[in-house]
Every structure is written in C-alpha cells, then in structure tokens.
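Cross-check.
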Amino acid sequence: MKLHQLFETPIKDIDHVGDFDKRFSWKHKRDRMLVTHPATLARVKEKFGNVKQNINLLFVNTWEADDQTEIGSVNVGYIRDNLGDEVSDAIQNMDTDNSINIIFTNNKGDQRIPMTPWIMAHRMMHAFARYGGATKEQYVAVANNLTLFTFEYILPSYGFLYPNRYMTFNKLMFGSRNDQLMFKHFFHEIGTFRSAREKKLREWFEVINEVGAQYIITGKIKFNELPQCFGPKGKRKCLMDDEPMVGQAEDALNSMGDYAELSMDELLDAAVGKIFIM
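Predicted model, tokenized:
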C-alpha cells in the first residue's frame, strides 16, 4: 500500500518524489524522516483534520527543487518546466480541482524548526501570501482583520495614540517600526499558540502566519484575555482606567477572533483548485 492510500479527507492525498535518503532540496535528515515516516504522516492527517477543505501534499526532494522555494501559486506547465515530469505527473494524479494542493520542496527558514504539522500549516500561509490572485487577497483580508481590530478598538484602551487608527496590513508593513513592535508584543500576550506563549514571534508579520496555522490545525482561533500591561521593557503600556473603553476593547478582541476565523475559511476556500510551491 502506498503511503497516500492511508489517508482520507481532509488530507485527501499525500505522495513523495525523489530520494529522501539523500540531501537534495531537503537538507536536514530529521525533516526527511518526518515527512516520510508513516507514524508522522498519520499525525499530519490527525492535525489537519479540523478544516472542511481537502488538502493534497506532495513532498519533493530533488536537485531541481532546491531553488524552488516559497514560489506560491503555479500551474502545471510551470511545475513541468521547473520541477520535471515526475513531479508534474504526481500532482496531476491527485484530485487537484477539489483540493488545496501544496508542493513542499524544502524546510528552509531563518530559524531551524523541524517540519512538524504546525510548521507545514505555517508555511502554507507563506505560500498563500505570495504574489497576486484570490489567495493573496484573502490572506490580506485575514491580516487586515487583525490589524484593524488591534489598532482601532483595542490599543486605544492602553492609551495608544495613533493619528490614523484605521490600520491596514499594508500600512503596517510600510509604517513605523514602533507600530510593528507594538503589534508583535500585543500578540505575545493574547496569542495562545506556542510562539506567542514563549514570546518567540520572529517578526510582527509572523502573527498572521501563526494565527492562520492555528486555524488550519485546530479549526478555530483562540485568544487570551486582554493583558493588564504589555510591551517591551521601558515601553510597557497598561489598560486605562476607563470602563467603557476597556469594555469596547474586550468586545473587539472577541470579534477579532470571530472575523479571523471567517476570513481564514474564505482564504482556504480561495485556495481550493490551486497548486502552491512552498
């Protein structure tokens, strides 16, 4: 029995191309073991079992795949030209029209983290964010929900003054470093995923990818209650003694989670029928 025959929805199909005993595009032996071992793949099935969309995973370990990193949405012609006939045939043997199709060529990154199901989901978010199209638009919608609620309705309750609080993802991307760090430190407090609990979010924009990974893995987005104070040493901010404003912030926090779940479901819907190289 092939490994992919062990799986049912939402992991509809899973397969491998290349020699995973060799160090080609997958550089670390532990990662190669993780993405091929039946016990690990059974755990992938379990962890991805909380979303409604079908997902196909194709792991590729070849020399050609080494420079195909975080490409985003592609067509079969691109795959055949850049990854070869075997990869193109493997992905076409899957039900691509009714699934989200992810080709993992590596586990590169600024931080060395093993290829767990969570990291797979996190890296899927990176792939969705690449270039244009519906998935990019929906990724930005997820990010806009998080930034708007945070800056418009929540941070003012900490005395955070911002002349134009209608914050978008793009404004924050090209805005002040102080705003970016405030966003990251706030999610260090309210985030319930590990990188937030351990105060190890690498950058502010990783908030979006970690919130998305939480939804892909758990089927929901959960935030902690508002912290009394937050921020780096010397720049900490605390809740104001203003009951109506704090009440508005608490309501906004709940709404932010609800809207993030809705926008994540729309993002995954937009990804159905597309093929992504990550």
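Residues 134-270 form one domain. Residues 1-7 have pLDDT under 50 and may be disordered. Passed to J.P. for a second look.
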